[in-house]
């Protein structure tokens, strides 16, 4: 079985080959931002998951490598465009593409990345590639829907927990789930087990996004790679804020809402004030419980899969690592 | 044989069905701009060409209809994003999507349209659909390259005629050519003849784009649908400006360059002054000659195709109409 480290090396090697090919392509202003964004690093989570799911059903993962590259490029495409829409200036401790180049560059190179991801996907030689192209296309649309809900929520104060979970399912979980499922399909796994792989991915993805929300507020700047408290400053309707608004007393709610109105404020003061209310309401505990529940669901689905235990081991370890669990 | 009018009706009916389906989909803010952009009308040139090429080789064009919808949606996706990048406020006498909704909407709904076009394409039931998905993906990347060259040219005063033709080949001609070729492939046409169909499309597309340049400066507002003189005001490196800079005397060149520097000017005065130099240099004639030469090439390729004359007739008529030739 391939370990996370082995797969990561495989993927990064392949990305080096592909980006140096892109580097020579013209027009340079189109392909440089693509290279910049892919060389920025990142955890390469989706391609690793894809290959790992593939490896659950086959020892020869070589044929799935182009699909792994495809999902990583697709994921970076979404980051380019989301960062414009969210006015994000920093990503992985680097300037975002629209800051480093220009907004037009981020739009157009993002578009090119969307099509590049199809180009790589189409390189897979599998009798069932067609199913994967279908899955990939539907997933891409769902990711757009998720981003739209995320933006819609900015103008709303009444987002429910259910709506929020549906949003992160679309925005984050489906791509993780589809990467896993694509790996399974490309290895020739049957429909039923491929669906289980997908469901595992959805629950893992939900837990992972909730964890990301948690880290944005309660994490550490240098390990997280983004500015801590960014969600608070932007009044982002995260699980934390939604639960806080739901559980707040009249006075706490008034305070929270007061901080969400002004456009000019001292950022540190706002973060401290909102954090104070989060702490009073034990929001961190609530979020951790929610993360645990999705993570348990994911683990149960993986455990129940009719696959040799040792073949599940890498996925088990990686999902533990993704959620910061060391066992 | 299906006439342009018949095909147009077929496509518009299908688009009505598809857009009303989209209208019901959530989130509304994602799909409304898609509907808005598709309902704005337009000549539906690419889908008509696709079905016409299909009809050259088969009487049953039904199976190619989803591909026709796909290329129209793809084309509109490029318009949404190009209009942001070009700061265009009006399209087909309507506000552009980023003006009517927001820039974020135009980015994200544009993205969704790119994936929707794949979704429609994948509905075609043809043994050779795979070749079409490949073609479509490569074409999409070329279109991005063309748009990048177009933007690159904004900062340059030394764009050559050759560079310009390559830019419009990528930005405009390849999509027209690929639409035609896709129609041929889906009908089961062989490789050689499909390549001829593509080459016909490239030459037709080049003539068509040069014609568009010409109309932007020498056309009439209400029939053209965009503001006349927009290219002049934006210092766009069109065939007209490139030939004018190439052929200008020292004094004419100085005048042209003087008008390209200031950010604030009286628009009518600028249009008049630049037009005056274009007229002195007979730029309109030069452009018309160039259009004629590509159009003749296209016609020769079509004439040489080993297909019954009556099956070529609709394409012949439509290409004449596209270039404003009434014979």
TrEMBL record, chains A, B:
The answer to whether keyword Chloroplast applies is: no
State the InterPro entries in the record: Isoprenoid_synthase_dom_sf, Polyprenyl_synt, Polyprenyl_synt_CS
Biological process (GO) annotations held by this record are: isoprenoid biosynthetic process
Q: Which GO terms describe its molecular function?
A: metal ion binding; prenyltransferase activity
Q: Name the needed cofactors.
A: Mg(2+)
Q: Does the keyword Magnesium apply?
A: yes
Matching SUPFAM superfamilies, A to Z? Terpenoid synthases
The record ties this protein, via PROSITE patterns, to: POLYPRENYL_SYNTHASE_2
Mind telling me which PANTHER family this protein's record contains? GERANYLGERANYL PYROPHOSPHATE SYNTHASE (PTHR12001), SHORT CHAIN ISOPRENYL DIPHOSPHATE SYNTHASE (PTHR12001:SF85)
> What is the official name of this protein in its record?
Geranylgeranyl diphosphate synthase, type II
- Species of origin reads Tangfeifania diversioriginum
Question: What phylogenetic lineage does the species belong to?
Answer: Bacteria, Pseudomonadati, Bacteroidota, Bacteroidia, Marinilabiliales
């Amino acid at each position: 079985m391939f370990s996370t480290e082995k797969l990561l090396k495989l993927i990064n090697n392949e990305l080096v080959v592909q980006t140096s090919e892109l580097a020579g392509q013209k027009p340079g202003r189109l392909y440089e931002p693509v290279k910049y964004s892919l060389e920025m690093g990142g955890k390469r989570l989706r391609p690793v998951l894809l290959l790992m799911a593939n490896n659950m059903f086959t020892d020869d993962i070589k044929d799935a490598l182009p699909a792994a590259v495809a999902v990583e490029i697709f994921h970076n495409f979404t980051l380019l465009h989301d960062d414009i829409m969210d006015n994000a200036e920093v990503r992985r401790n680097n300037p975002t593409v629209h800051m480093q180049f220009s907004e037009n560059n981020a739009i157009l190179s993002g578009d090119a990345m969307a099509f590049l991801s199809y180009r790589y996907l189409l390189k897979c030689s599998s009798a069932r590639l067609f199913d994967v192209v279908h899955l990939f296309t539907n997933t891409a649309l769902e990711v757009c829907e998720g981003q739209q809900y995320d933006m819609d929520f900015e103008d709303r104060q009444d987002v429910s927990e259910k709506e929020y979970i549906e949003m992160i399912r679309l925005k984050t979980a489906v791509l993780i789930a589809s990467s896993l499922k694509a790996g399974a399909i490309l290895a020739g796994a049957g429909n039923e087990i491929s669906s289980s792989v997908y469901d595992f991915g959805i629950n893992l993805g939900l837990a992972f996004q909730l964890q990301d929300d948690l880290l944005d507020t309660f994490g550490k700047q240098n390990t997280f790679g983004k500015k801590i408290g960014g969600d608070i400053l932007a009044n982002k309707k995260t699980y934390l804020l939604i639960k806080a608004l739901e559980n707040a007393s009249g006075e706490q709610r008034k305070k929270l809402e007061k901080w969400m109105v002004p456009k000019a404020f001292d950022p540190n003061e706002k973060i401290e004030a909102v954090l104070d209310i989060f702490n009073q309401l034990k929001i961190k505990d609530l979020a951790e419980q929610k993360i645990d529940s999705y993570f348990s669901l994911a683990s149960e689905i993986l455990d129940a899969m009719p696959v040799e235990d040792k073949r599940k081991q890498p996925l088990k370890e990686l999902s533990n690592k993704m959620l910061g669990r060391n066992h």
